[in-house]
Structure of Putative isomerase YbhE:
Amino acid sequence: MAVATNISLLSDMFLSTPLFFTITTCATIVAAASPPACQSIAPPQQTINIQTSNVTLNYTPFGIVYARKDILFVGAGHNVALLNTSTFPPSLINTLPTPFGTEPFAVNGLAISRDKRILYLSSGPGAIVVDVEKAIAGGAGSIVDYLDGTVGNSSIERHFPFTVNTHLHHTRNWSVSNTYVGYIELDLSVVGTALSPDGKRLYATSENVLNSISSTGTCNISATGTLSVLDVEILKTNPSEALLATVDAGCGPVRVAVSHDGKLVWVTARESNMLLAFDATKLELNSSDALVASVQVGTSPVGVVLVNGGRHIITADSNRFGYKNTTTGLTVVDIEAALKGEQGFPRIPTGLFPREFVLSPDGKTLLLSDYASNMVQAVNVSQLTLN
Ligand SMILES: *[C@@H]1O[C@H](CO)[C@@H](O)[C@H](O)[C@H]1NC(C)=O
Ligand SMILES: *[C@@H]1O[C@H](CO)[C@@H](O)[C@H](O)[C@H]1NC(C)=O
Ligand SMILES: *[C@@H]1O[C@H](CO)[C@@H](O)[C@H](O)[C@H]1NC(C)=O
Ligand SMILES: *[C@@H]1O[C@H](CO)[C@@H](O)[C@H](O)[C@H]1NC(C)=O
Ligand SMILES: *[C@@H]1O[C@H](CO)[C@@H](O)[C@H](O)[C@H]1NC(C)=O
Ligand SMILES: *[C@@H]1O[C@H](CO)[C@@H](O)[C@H](O)[C@H]1NC(C)=O
Ligand SMILES: *[C@@H]1O[C@H](CO)[C@@H](O)[C@H](O)[C@H]1NC(C)=O
Ligand SMILES: *[C@@H]1O[C@H](CO)[C@@H](O)[C@H](O)[C@H]1NC(C)=O
């Protein structure tokens, strides 16, 4: 029951094969919501001073993934930047332009195959496919394909109702085949997805819910959004049947992370300034008591990442709407304390619009893209366990 509207690709992909694209169309699912309050600016937080440093790029950094323990790829404007992570902070090795070079083809989210040989740059209505070894070797011939979405153009700012497309790819010789499988309609603006540790579930956030569409095509949307649970096996073959449950997830939920044991699903509710924890078992039963913790964080949290073996969870408090009298930062949440209902967690200062995270393979350094400061920031998270 999709309704035609201004369609656009959403750009966060965190998955290995198969590749799930988020694109948009008007959806018809309307959740029964009793909205948690939205909040403009978060209360002030104490600052923790731990070692952080940054490397400046020439372009706005967004998605960020490790190809090897010493090489990081960063989506940066219409380029992909390669960074050497053997130093703190990393150093810039090279910047490879993508073939399109103009709007709407900025490089947004990145995803890398499990074998680390193929990198996907979310861009335009689909993804640019990059041969990792060729990119490291200097870039010649590294752009091997473009997986085309079916509708719309990329724009993180113009997203609207939503669907997930699944594309299957990979042949044995690492060339790419691009097979359109189908899509599932969810609530609006799906920007965050995460797999369960066993790969059987895909969690997806929707920023808003569609209340109604007027005769002229205007969508009336809620301030609150949802978290959906999808069955990955069904999603691969028969996507429209894959939805297991959808629950309310605060104002503007945008990213999701799953605990290492798969039991908790964490969501940043950007317009609530909250980090929400859901019990995965109850969530799958679509139970109204699945929400087990609501943690106040900084202003407009986006990225979320578990660090220190799951002892801490960190949010990227973006202040992306540029509110006055507040700041950006990383809220460091002690998980055990948060699950007991504690509040008042401190923050680490950042540049402007901290957005996406990646943890180093040894777990000691957290890297993040400070989108509006054109820099990648390194944070020595091993220092958080010293007290
Ligand atoms: C990364 O930097 C280290 C130290 O400067 C250097 O030894 C190494 O060769 C560099 N690696 C790459 C892939 O550039
Ligand atoms: C997508 O962008 C291209 C290039 O700017 C443009 O030609 C095309 O019409 C756009 N498609 C949609 C659906 O907006
Ligand atoms: C890669 O494998 C596919 C499927 O087996 C085949 O069609 C294609 O020609 C091969 N490409 C190369 C470059 O060997
Ligand atoms: C949008 O929908 C909500 C919920 O149905 C309703 O209360 C509100 O009046 C609508 N707003 C507009 C501008 O139509
Ligand atoms: C989940 O529960 C809500 C609220 O009771 C309901 O509106 C929705 O249809 C349910 N979703 C699924 C997938 O069962
Ligand atoms: C700024 O925030 C502080 C701390 O919440 C508050 O005391 C102060 O009144 C605010 N200033 C303005 C101008 O809103
Ligand atoms: C980034 O690093 C430079 C050089 O160390 C430093 O001068 C600057 O203050 C840092 N910027 C931020 C926003 O942390
Ligand atoms: C990170 O902090 C730990 C603890 O203070 C320290 O031992 C280590 O050298 C630091 N890492 C870097 C890259 O400086």
